[in-house]
Amino acid sequence: MSFLRASSPHAHGRVDTQSVMRTVILGTLPGLAALTYFFGIGSLINITLALIFCLGAEAAILKLRKRPLGFYLRDYSAAVTAVLLGLALPPYCPWWVVMVASLSAIVLAKQLYGGMGYNPFNPAMVGYVVVLISFPLQMSQWPTPLPLAEQLPSVGAALQQVFSSEGLDAYTSATALDIVKQNNSQLMNQVYADNALLREGALAGAGWEWVNLGFLMGGLYLLYKKVFTWHAPLSMLAALSLCALLGYDSGSSQSGGSLALHLFSGATMLGAFFIITDPVSSTVSTRGRIIFGAAIGVLVYIIRVLGNYPDAVAFAVLLMNFAAPFIDYYTVPRSYGHDKARRATEKQEP
């Protein structure tokens, strides 16, 4: 009997990368709708610019590498990176911030390592962290959400903010995580009473809770479509929840913030369902995904409470991207019969 000789990997069934990436983009729509409703069209402008820069950079590098443009651009991986960057960056940030983030994501974090499937770090988070460290002022200017803002920026004012040096300071305010992090003297109930952003929100700040609920809905849709498994998102949210409960200490001035604040403010749900589930830069085994997600949840809380940045999803993800191969080494199941063969070999040795 003759056997077919084929090298690994041995895939069972067709993996349609294009379809998966389109589904991920579709899953971001509820969160994007909430961002647009509460903060205006800034995120839409971000995504449009990021698509132009990411797809342009991808095409340029593929051309230099003499790779077929159509084949690689049609996998939608660069488009997913652009959408995630556009969602993560502050609305109405300058166009050159989006450009630097996009080029860093595609050129440095993806193509420098060989393209899709070879990048050890999440490209969108690399691009985000590069501009967060390089341009802290521009990255801290989040607009005031409805209903606190008297009006959202018009299309003309939004484009002026993005493409000129004139800012829209009248539209900006601190985020919910910023307010809690900067507090060092008031009890948490006083912080909520004195800040309209927190007072107007039912869970974690006006606008922000709806944005996170939108990404939660999109994430549940992706779980339903079996784009990824539940292990990493659930373990991240569970670990973050446990840390928040242990660190709340009844709301003293040293409190790290409530459970609802950590779950429904900042980039928590975007990170849990759209960032840490990246199949390339995360772990591959079931146990590994649980460890990977839990470690990210703990790091997010530690950096938010003790670090210099009010939100920490990007840093936590990149730190655990470093550790993903190590986790896989100790959690990927052994091949069938491996332990039995090893024991037999050890018995034969003198």
Mean pLDDT: 86
Number of helices: 19
The helix fraction, in percent, is 55-70%
The main pleated sheet reads as: 2 strands, antiparallel
Cα Rg: 22 Å
Strand order of the largest sheet: 1-2
What is the oligomer described by this structure? single chain
The total of beta strands comes to 2
Whole-Å distance between the termini? 39 Å
SSE pattern: HHHHHHHHEHEHHHHHHHHHH
Structural class: mainly alpha
Proportion of beta-strand residues = under 5%
Pfam family, one: NQR2_RnfD_RnfE
Main location: membrane
Protein name: Ion-translocating oxidoreductase complex subunit D
Organism: Pseudoteredinibacter isoporae
Write the layout of secondary structure elements.
Layout lengths: L16 H11 L1 H11 L2 H23 L4 H5 L3 H12 L6 H14 L14 H12 L1 H4 L2 E2 L11 H9 L8 E2 L2 H7 L5 H7 L1 H4 L8 H17 L6 H17 L11 H6 L3 H8 L10 H21 L6 H19 L6 H11 L2
Antiparallel strand pairs: 1-2
Helix pairs in contact: 1-5, 1-13, 2-13, 3-5, 3-6, 5-6, 5-7, 6-7, 7-18, 13-16, 14-16, 14-17, 17-18
Task: Please name the defining characteristics of this protein.
mainly alpha, two-stranded antiparallel sheet, 19 helices, 2 strands, globular
